[in-house]
Amino acid sequence: MLKRLLLSPAKDYKNYRWFYTSEGVLVVGGKSDDQNELVIKNFLRPEFKVMHTSEPGSPFCILLSKEPSKKDLEECSIFCGCFSQQWKKVKKNGKISVDIFDGSQVYKTKGMKTGTFGVQGDKKVVKIKPELIVVVQKGKIRAVPKGTKETKLAVISPGKMKKEEAVEKIAKKIRDKFHFPVSKEEIMQAIPSDKIGVR
């Protein structure tokens, strides 16, 4: 099924926000309203779990597994929260609320804007600590929740740096400590939009 999803650029998960959980499950989310629309259209199945922050301004993140583990759900919820607008608003040591629901609960009516969907029935709400580690997955720099097996290159959390400054710091950290060339553009694509702390 997954191989068939990846035939066209619109259906290639690497064109979206993505990562693999520590248990090897692919998570795909949108980078924009248009991409949220495409993610739901191209990747959603009724039995898959979907996540979105309780507040507006979030990717729809889909766990591409019929039976995700508790760890898969936790990592997906952290990823979803970290790439939402709440990342820039959360106070120090604060948490972000993320809704979890089934693909079968998602609906779209004619008047809804691009990238907007409704959810029928009950949702589970979890609160996540916004923090990611920078790693390499499938040959690409990714910012993912802690717990994955890859070598940790840097840790990022909400902070005061602009995105460009954070990219420079992450790139220097990787060069100095791990001694391999790194694409700043790739880091730029992998991390949240702004107000970043790097350690």
How far from one another are the termini?
39 Å
In terms of DSSP E residues, the strand content is: 25-35%
How many DSSP H or I helices?
Answer: 6
Largest sheet: 6 strands, antiparallel
Average pLDDT score: 93
Would you list the SSEs in sequence order as H and E? HEEHEEHHEEEEEEEHHE
Tell me the count of domains: 2
Shape: globular
Proportion in helices = 25-40%
Fold and architecture overview:
This protein has 199 residues and is of the alpha+beta class. Helices cover 28% and strands 27% of the residues. The longest helix is centred in the last third of the chain and has 16 residues, at 163-178. The model is unreliable at 1-7 (pLDDT under 50).
